Structure to design on (352 residues):
């Protein structure tokens, strides 16, 4: 009996000690953030979809982080958000005062062979994603293109930002695997620059433009039927567009589907936010909890509805699960994507 009482006493002491430790950790996190600002990096210019989501999050997440620091949005455009990804991984402070968002597709460059990629996405301190994305190719109403089948018959000129961005990589992938005839014109400053080029008649449309982005940034395009969706760049059809085929439905074999999973499948990551690798565990846990709590915040959701963006949160575990699965892709398939994106040609030019 004495041994049982002793064991019970030790157990109670252990629980009490653990509780004290938890309280101490929470107090340490709160005291660390109190009075500080937190940099929220977005890898695109102001005005685009990524910027809208980043500013929406920043207006609300500060109140959910212990100590209530002030989030400050900082735009860091460049190479389809690759610049911001490299910054977050290699340069940004790893103390929990910096986190941000870049295109999920950029994360795949580390696997596919992006020559300027300086990170391993599996080692980022992922906080979660604000939504699972669903993207599409859009044709201007006067272009004459009604479906992807039309682009297999004649050339369609589309605008893009950097060569590694989805606006450039996705139409090139379809050219390689499906035989489409997209002519990709790069160099535009993000989707805002591309959409302006579409309206000016410089290009006939664009690919890699999220449905959520067009709804928030260009609602008149949909309302006034200025554009036509010609293919959905996703695994499943968006419920609002049940009659438009997905790019996966055009895939001819399993290898093509595996390739498309690398190029288009990352949309399960949607609008992902991450801190640099190496953030102290207690602060990372606090940031992850703050992110999750913000996604359920009524004021945040009302704000999201006001700016017309979709909120379908994804957890860090879901992001990492996709990345781990992608890294199991057979090497020949990865090499086929590498060639489809023109990475082998870029490497050849460098050697000369």
């Amino acid at each position: 009996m004495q041994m049982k009482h002793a064991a019970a006493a030790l157990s109670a002491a252990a629980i009490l000690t653990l509780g004290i430790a938890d309280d101490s950790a929470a107090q340490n996190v709160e005291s660390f953030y109190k009075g500080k600002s937190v940099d929220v990096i977005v890898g695109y210019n102001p005005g685009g979809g990524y910027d809208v989501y980043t500013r929406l999050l920043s207006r609300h997440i500060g109140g959910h982080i212990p100590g209530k620091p002030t989030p400050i949005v900082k735009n860091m455009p460049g190479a389809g958000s690759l610049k911001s990804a490299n910054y977050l991984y290699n340069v940004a402070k790893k103390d929990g005062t910096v986190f941000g968002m870049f295109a999920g597709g950029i994360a795949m460059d580390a696997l596919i062979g992006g020559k300027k990629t300086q990170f391993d996405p599996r080692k980022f301190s992922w906080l979660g994603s604000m939504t699972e994305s669903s993207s599409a190719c859009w044709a201007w109403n006067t272009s004459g293109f009604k479906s992807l089948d039309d682009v297999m018959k004649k050339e369609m000129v589309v605008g893009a930002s950097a060569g590694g961005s989805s606006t450039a990589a996705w139409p090139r992938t379809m050219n390689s695997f499906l035989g489409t005839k997209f002519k990709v014109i790069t160099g535009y400053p993000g989707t805002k620059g591309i959409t302006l080029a579409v309206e000016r008649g410089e290009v006939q449309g664009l690919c890699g433009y999220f449905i959520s982005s067009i709804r928030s940034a260009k609602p008149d395009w949909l309302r006034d039927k200025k554009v036509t969706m010609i293919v959905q760049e996703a695994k499943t059809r968006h419920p609002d567009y049940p009659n438009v085929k997905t790019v996966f439905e055009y895939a001819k074999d399993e290898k093509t589907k595996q390739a498309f999973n690398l190029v288009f499948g990352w949309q399960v990551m949607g609008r992902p936010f991450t801190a640099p690798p190496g953030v102290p565990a207690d602060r990372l846990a606090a940031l992850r909890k703050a992110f999750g709590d913000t996604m359920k915040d009524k004021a945040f959701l009302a704000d999201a509805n006001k700016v017309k963006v979709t909120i379908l949160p994804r957890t860090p575990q879901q992001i990492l699960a996709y990345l781990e699965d992608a890294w199991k892709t057979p090497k020949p398939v990865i090499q086929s994507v590498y060639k489809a994106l023109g990475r082998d040609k870029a490497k050849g030019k460098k050697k000369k």
The longest strand covers residues 227-233. The longest helix spans residues 2-33.
